[in-house]
Amino acid sequence: MTPDPLATANAALNAGATVLLLWGRSLARAGRYDTHKRVMLSAFALSTVFLALYLTRKTVFGFESHTFHAEGAAKAAYLLLLASHVILAAIVPILAIALLRLGLRDERVRHRRLARWAWPVWMYVSVTGVVLYVLLYHLNPA
Fold it and tell me: Where do the domains of the chain lie, and which CATH numbers do they carry?
């Protein structure tokens, strides 16, 4: 299956967000909070552009879905990955906005407490977004 340009752009945005999330976390651990803030704002911006393009793509293509043409354990694994991705993706914007608000208000204790579990969720959604793109558009059996 040939991916449409919006699907490819969305995968690239997810990959970029993943890189920025990893970099931002390393900056926070190193105590480089000003740079951490800029990098995490950039990750949020990429994720926001992703969401806008994703919704545009879904609207343009009439909310069609693509089938992963595998059977057995491979199909079950794909569906489990897809379900976990979709469920967690629904809460990432809420978590990301909460993290940004706490960070921008310099509420570091509360920001850190939330980031301990929100950051891995955001990472998981970003990484699995790319994995699902590769599975669906590049490794999908005919």
Answer: 5-137 (1.20.120.80)
Confidence band (pLDDT; 50, 70, 90) for 29?
very high
- Read off the pLDDT of each residue in 19-38 and give the average, rounded to a whole number: 97
> pTM to 2 decimals?
0.92
**Amino acid code (one letter) for 73:** A
* C-alpha–C-alpha distance, residues 56 and 62, integer Å: 10
Sign of CA dihedral 97, 94, 98, 101: positive
CB contact at 8 A, 28 and 36 = yes
Distance CA 90, CA 87 (A): 5
Closest to 110 measured CA to CA, from 90, 18, 118: 118
Q: Which has the closest alpha carbon to 43: 61, 60, 67, 26?
A: 26
Q: Within its chain, how far is the Cα of 65 from the centroid?
A: 19
Q: How far apart are CA 84 and CA 99, in angstroms?
A: 21
